[in-house]
Design brief:
- This protein is mostly helical.
- It has a single domain, classed as Up-down Bundle (Sodium/glucose cotransporter), CATH 1.20.1730.
- Helix content is 79%, strand content 0%.
- The chain contains 19 helices and no strands.
- Helix 4 packs parallel to helix 12, helix 5 packs parallel to helix 9 and helix 8 packs across helix 15.
- The protein is globular and about 70 Å long.
- The N and C termini lie far apart (71 Å).
């Protein structure tokens, strides 16, 4: 694919230029973490959509489409539902607090510095798992487009580029680059690849009927859909990366409106990926086993030549737009919530150095681990959804429920611990880790609230 290296160099050059240009406008920790709270609807909705349309929708979603057919759209519907909950119930209240990060928000809701640090550690650990997933997926795209390139070399090179423009420009660079990346994504995948793939397959009516089953299928039932709604819906409503976008919005109205736009785009892209993969399978390109079950391999085989190069670049843009947001958010959390409070400029330096350390940690985990993409994805989401989900979702109504600080701490430890242990034990007795963890977290919070009311 001779065109791909040229397009890749141009694309990476644009991202680095954005980092250099925006770096001049980053004056301190606020500028790095929340872009001076200057994001309007276009940039806020674009960066929110580009962040959530990530390795989940593009890489994991493609595998699920091969396994479950059209019913796998629930996977992205779950994320879109979380964004709608964020916009309708959480975003305005979160934006009003003036916080920089999600852990700071948790600390404000519960007036508890210990819980703030606990939320910080949980968020950073989950971020390392997500960075490993996105690094692996990005390297997978690059090696599919450039078969002679070593996967480890591809991974390290991409991480270095993403790290440079993210650490230099902070939230401004991420938001500006996401506008570009979202445009590439919509144009290449939804407006070009999908119509061409459907046309070659003979249209929607020509796809196998069993693959178009809705709302469920023979391989996907209500229990799995419920698990997805919790596992992927909760992080989309309260995840540190999406909250960083809301906290960067110009005002509450912008925050709410951006969530709705991002939810629509995520659902639309999810449906598009499913139909693209099903069309490829009907053409004999994709199967549920082997490397042909990966989206980069599908696009490379289905669209060779120049078009394949453009589509590979679009897929890479999807993954990079999520990587930079995760790295930015985690580094801001380290500087803002874990390290001792210093001057605003010191916080900026700490954030940039933290980005280097976290990027390296994600890279090392990706290189050292033999677990597949779905395993990384589920572990990171389970840790966050089960550990912090119930605490944050009920935190805005803490006074009415009667939630105490100690109760919230135990909910984080209990819910997150149960979720991670069950994940590592590979679902003993068929118990879904995120469902069990979330139920434990809610049970601890509700029990603590009842106890508080009885004491009063």
């Amino acid at each position: 694919m001779e065109l791909f290296p040229i397009l890749l160099l141009i694309y990476l050059g644009v991202l680095l230029a954005i980092g250099v240009f925006t770096a001049r406008r980053v004056q301190g920790g606020d500028g790095y973490a929340v872009a001076g709270r200057s994001l309007g609807t276009l940039r806020c909705s674009s960066t929110l959509a580009a962040t959530t349309i990530s390795g989940s929708a593009a890489m994991v979603g493609a595998r699920l489409a091969l396994e479950h057919g059209l019913s796998s759209v629930w996977f992205n519907v779950a994320g879109a539902s979380g964004l709608l909950v964020l916009g309708g119930l959480i975003a305005p209240a979160a934006r009003r607090t003036g916080c920089r990060t999600l852990p700071e928000l948790v600390g404000v809701l519960y007036d508890d510095p210990y819980l703030r640090r606990l939320a910080s550690v949980t968020s950073v650990l989950a971020a390392v798992a997500w960075l490993a997933l996105l690094s692996l997926a990005s390297a997978q795209v690059l090696t599919a487009a450039l078969p002679g390139l070593d996967a480890s070399v591809a991974l390290v090179l991409l991480v270095l580029v993403m790290l440079v423009y993210t650490a230099m420009g902070g939230q401004r660079a991420v938001a500006d680059s996401d506008v570009v990346q979202l445009g590439i994504l919509i144009g290449a995948i939804l407006l070009v690849a999908l119509p061409l793939a459907l046309s070659r397959a003979g249209g929607l009516a020509a796809l196998p009927r069993e693959s178009l089953s809705l709302p469920f299928s023979t391989t996907l039932g209500p229990s799995t859909v419920l698990t997805w709604l919790l596992l992927y819906g909760i992080p989309h409503a309260i995840g540190p990366d999406v909250q960083s976008k809301i906290l960067s919005a110009r005002d509450e109205r912008t925050a709410r409106r951006s969530c709705i736009v991002a939810a629509m785009l995520k659902a639309l892209f999810g449906v598009g990926i499913v139909l693209l993969v099903l069309s490829a399978r009907s053409l004999g390109v994709a199967s549920a086993q082997g490397t042909t079950g990966t989206l980069p391999a599908i696009l490379t085989e289905l669209f060779p030549g120049g078009l394949g190069a453009v589509l590979s670049l679009a897929l890479l843009a999807v993954l990079m737009s999520s990587w930079d947001s995760v790295a930015l958010t985690a580094s801001a959390i380290v500087a803002n919530d874990l390290l001792p409070a210093r001057s605003d400029r010191s916080r900026l330096l700490a954030a940039r150095l933290s980005a280097v350390v976290l990027a390296g940690a994600g890279c090392l985990v990706a290189l050292a681990s033999r677990r597949d993409l779905v395993s990384f994805f589920e572990l990171g989401y389970t840790l966050f959804a089960a550990g912090l989900g119930p605490v944050i979702l009920l935190g805005f109504w803490r006074g009415r429920i009667g939630l105490g600080r100690v109760t919230a701490r135990w909910a984080v430890l209990g819910g997150g611990g149960v979720g991670v242990i069950l994940t590592l034990l590979e679902r003993p007795q068929g118990v879904e880790p995120v469902v069990a963890g979330v139920l434990v977290g809610f049970a601890i919070l509700v029990g603590g609230g009842i106890r508080t009311r009885l004491v009063r």
